[in-house]
Amino acid sequence: MFPAKERLFASLAGGQSPDALFIACADSRINPNLITQTEPGDLFILRNIGNIVPAYGEMLGGVSSAIEYAVLGLGVSSIIVCGHSDCGAMKALMAPEKAGLDKMPTVASWLRNAEAARAALGDFSAEDAGPATVRSLSEQNVLLQIAHLRTHPAVAAGLARGTLFLQGWFYDIGSGEISILDEQTRTTVSIADSIANLEATEAEKA
């Protein structure tokens, strides 16, 4: 691989200047650069179980420092939170006993940062929850983590200046389709449709 990318890595040897912070799940099936068709150096990537962003002050550490550095140190112009289908973290939220969270107290504590997403779905039987419910919870979780992002000082300042843009994505592992989540309507639109709508809008302006 390296010989084919020799010029790219040579250009990156002296530093990085990514366009976006990409927050994704640690799931081994998720490859941010593959999903976005980007090259090394294009994304500053933050991964953890459940693509979670604790609200500022709740758990200051690796996540909050990565966000602060991406915005203030690297000057990224956008932050994307990407959830995905068949997410083990979301399944554990729905059925903690089945997931064995009683034996994983650190994981259980971490997932509390997504508990409000589960509450947003209302009452349901974890045993009857299929892929559609897992997807709904994953989408609610993405929206929740974007709300948490807004509590981080560096993010809030960037949004106030108009230099930072937040976006939520849902990635379907089986189909490879990416959907964009709308914070206001809490609905999704495929990235292909989003691009088509944008092109149509630009055409109308021309």
TrEMBL record:
The EC number(s) this enzyme carries: 4.2.1.1
Family label: Belongs to the beta-class carbonic anhydrase family.
Annotated signal sequence range: none
Cofactor info, note text: Binds 1 zinc ion per subunit.
Function: Reversible hydration of carbon dioxide.
PANTHER family (UniProt xref): CARBONIC ANHYDRASE
Name used for this protein in its record: Carbonic anhydrase
EC category name: lyase
Biological source species: Acetobacter orientalis
InterPro entries tied to this protein: Beta_CA_cladeB, Carbonic_anhydrase, Carbonic_anhydrase_CS, Carbonic_anhydrase_sf
SMART domains: Pro_CA
Catalyzed reaction equations: hydrogencarbonate + H(+) = CO2 + H2O
